[in-house]
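Hi L.,

As promised, Flagellar hook-basal body complex protein FliE:
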Amino acid sequence: MDYQATLKELGNSTSQIGSPKLNPAEVYQQEKDFNQFFEQAFNGLESKINKTETNIPDSITGKTENLHDVMIDMTEAQLSLQTAIQIRNKMVEAVNDLKNMQF
């Protein structure tokens, strides 16, 4: 999945400050797209972790002969998990910043 292109597309469809162009139906659709984006990302993360969990025992028992494929899958799963953790941390930080704002 091309996450950068999806984020760029979502960013281009939002209205600019001072010129409201979106009606409530468009805002709802963007929220739905945002939710779908994260749902797909987490499903991809889960599939990578599950693939790694099946590859490791297969490599130990000898069912998989390509150790480098197992290592690549493990590295992909690790990087995906680290990315998801950083995204979570940034979202928590943003929520805390919003809580601390004074109007």
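Residues 15-19 have pLDDT under 50 and may be disordered.

Thanks again for sending the construct details.

K.
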